[in-house]
Automatic annotation (TrEMBL):
GO terms for biological process: electron transport coupled proton transport; oxidative phosphorylation; respiratory electron transport chain. It catalyses: 4 Fe(II)-[cytochrome c] + O2 + 8 H(+)(in) = 4 Fe(III)-[cytochrome c] + 2 H2O + 4 H(+)(out). Its main location: membrane. GO terms for molecular function: cytochrome-c oxidase activity; heme binding; metal ion binding. It comes from Chitinasiproducens palmae. Keywords: Cell membrane, Copper, Electron transport, Heme, Iron, Membrane, Metal-binding, Respiratory chain, Translocase, Transmembrane, Transmembrane helix, Transport. It is found in: Cell membrane; Membrane. It is a multi-pass membrane protein. This is Cytochrome c oxidase subunit 1. The chain crosses the membrane at residues 34-56, 76-97, 118-136, 161-187, 199-227, 259-277, 289-308, 314-333, 354-376, 388-411, 427-448, 468-489.
Length: 534
């Protein structure tokens, strides 16, 4: 009897206890702490991936080899892709999910708190393996982030470390996704039906299903690579009856839904920010939900548009071409709905709204270049050129990253209890937007003129655009360092010299949602009694 009473008393203490010091972070089970861990980790990976990008740009500043061997250049290109996708963009969105989903649906925490902790701590281990790969004989993998066979079957031990790291990151993603699905389906506040959920929650629910569906496919592809490398199989070796093109089919069956895994949560953030600063409800809420679901379903039938140059039969080319064009329809629905939300709204242009509008403008350019690449006759000559590099950076940097910044500026007052410095935020936006376009817009012209990707050297006629891109890349990198030291850190620390004011419970006049009913900063334990949603 006494032990039961003692346990109950202990549990009660634990529920209201605030762990401190390193234990608070190492054993974190509170969704806010884990969200902060994800965001800190992802920004660190973003900076490491950014340094790799700048080294690539320095090498490409002039024709000829400047500072590195082509093998090392290709290792950097590969690592840059892996770090940015699996280390920066995906964990950043999971950080937002951990922070915001319980607050937006009125839950006290995520469904599986300890699994939440475990899924985070797999990530630093995996990224350490990717860094360690540089210090083994032969260096890191240089097969491109797609790890195409037969290149990847011939790499040194760094490739094995890469395979192990991707397995760990995949396991982390699957656990995080299961947690998100169970939380959203089971822990919503009374009265919050599915069609009353904020768009950010909807986009994450659909994204989590995508993750559960495709991460095992990636695991299968890299496990087959591992077996080809060490256990005598010939999945991708034509001499043994295998097919290297089969690797591309399996990889892109994962890889294309992965593109939407990295953009759907961004759509969710933009769908929160634009209505708040337009002082209007989101236009066409239900059509946004259906459009998100449509994008997710269609993403499974377009994978081979990455493979038009592999000698596909013309009927296959036509199928994947038309299926890809079809995805532009629900994406267009979203863009028109966001535009209609702003139409005749009482707009103000604080930093979150600037990033959201910047996202709309630049992401649309990325969408149009995607539509161009969906056409097989155009894709075949442009495949493997800088046109493709320009396209996916417009989608991932101007899409995912700008949306992440919009979300940070929008919700940081709720997280920290302090308003960031608005002037500095606007400087960050304008320098980022301009330098991003200076970096990546010329790459469209380089690609159309025939400059191939993943080469450390190039003919002299491409010099001017490459130099312009390098200047832009350094300006963009400095803008993110500026964000870290002059905006983010002072906001978290509450530095006096930054002149920061305390945030109101609802700092944005037009903001809607349960998260704005809480005090700022959001307390350690929220919604211990679920709110009622009318």
């Amino acid at each position: 009897m006494s032990s039961v009473a003692h346990d109950a008393e202990h549990d009660h203490d634990h529920a209201h206890d605030h762990p401190t010091g390193w234990r608070r972070w190492l054993w974190a089970t509170n969704h806010k702490d884990i969200g902060t861990l994800y965001l800190t980790f992802s920004f660190t990976m973003f900076l490491i991936g950014g340094i790799m990008a700048l080294l690539i740009r320095v090498e490409l500043f002039e024709p000829g080899l400047q500072i590195m061997r082509p093998e090392f250049f290709n290792q950097l290109v590969t690592s840059h892709g892996l770090f940015m996708i699996f280390g920066a963009i995906m964990p950043a969105f999971v950080g937002f999910a951990n922070w915001m989903i319980p607050l937006q649906i009125g839950a006290s925490d995520m469904a599986f708190a300890r699994m939440n902790n475990f899924s985070f701590w797999l990530l630093p281990i995996a990224s350490a393996l990717l860094v360690l790969a540089y210090f083994v004989p032969g260096g890191s993998t240089a097969a491109g982030w797609t790890l195409y066979a037969p290149l990847s079957t011939q790499m040194g031990p760094g490739m094995d470390l890469g395979i192990f790291a991707i397995h760990l990151m995949g396991a982390s993603s699957i656990m995080g996704a299961i947690n998100i699905v169970v939380t959203i389906l089971n822990l919503r506040a009374p009265g919050m039906t599915l069609m009353k959920m904020p768009m950010f929650v909807w986009t994450w629910l659909i994204t989590a299903y995508l993750l559960i569906a495709v991460m095992p496919v990636l695991a299968g592809a890299i496990t087959m690579l591992l077996f080809d490398r060490h256990f005598g199989t010939s999945f991708f070796n034509a001499a043994g009856g295998g097919d290297p093109i089969m690797y591309q089919h399996i990889f892109w069956f994962f890889g294309h839904p992965e593109v939407y895994i990295m953009i759907l949560p961004a759509f969710g953030i933009i769908s929160e920010v634009i209505p708040a600063f337009s002082r209007k409800p989101l236009f066409g809420y239900s059509s946004m939900v259906y459009a998100t679901g449509s994008i997710a379903i269609l993403s499974f039938i377009v994978w081979a548009h990455h493979m038009f140059a592999t000698g596909m039969p013309v009927t296959g080319q036509l199928f994947f071409m038309y299926a890809t064009m079809l995805i532009a329809v629900p994406t267009g629905v979203k863009v028109f709905n966001w535009t209609a939300t702003m139409w005749r709204g009482a707009l103000t242009f604080e930093t979150p709204m600037l990033f959201a509008i910047g996202f709309l403008f630049v992401f649309t350019i990325g969408g149009f270049t995607g539509l161009i690449l969906s056409m097989a006759p155009l894709d075949i000559p442009m495949h493997g050129t800088y046109y493709v590099v320009a396209h996916f950076h417009y989608v991932l940097v101007a899409g995912s990253l700008f949306a992440l910044f919009a979300g940070w500026y929008y919700w940081a007052p709720k997280w920290t209890g302090r308003m960031y410095n608005e002037t500095r935020g606007k400087i960050h936006f304008w320098v980022s937007l301009i330098s991003f376009n200076v970096t990546f817009f010329p790459m469209h012209f380089l690609g159309l003129a025939g400059m191939p990707r993943r080469y450390a050297d190039y003919p002299a006629q491409f010099t001017d655009f490459n130099q312009l891109a390098t200047y832009g890349a350094f300006a963009f990198g400095l803008a993110q360092v500026y964000f870290l030291f002059l905006i983010a850190l002072p906001t978290y620390r509450g530095s006096k010299e930054a002149g920061l004011v305390e945030a109101a419970d609802k700092p944005w006049e037009g903001a809607q949602g349960l998260e704005w009913t809480l005090p700022s900063p959001a307390p350690f334990h929220t919604f211990e009694t679920p709110p009622k949603v009318e």
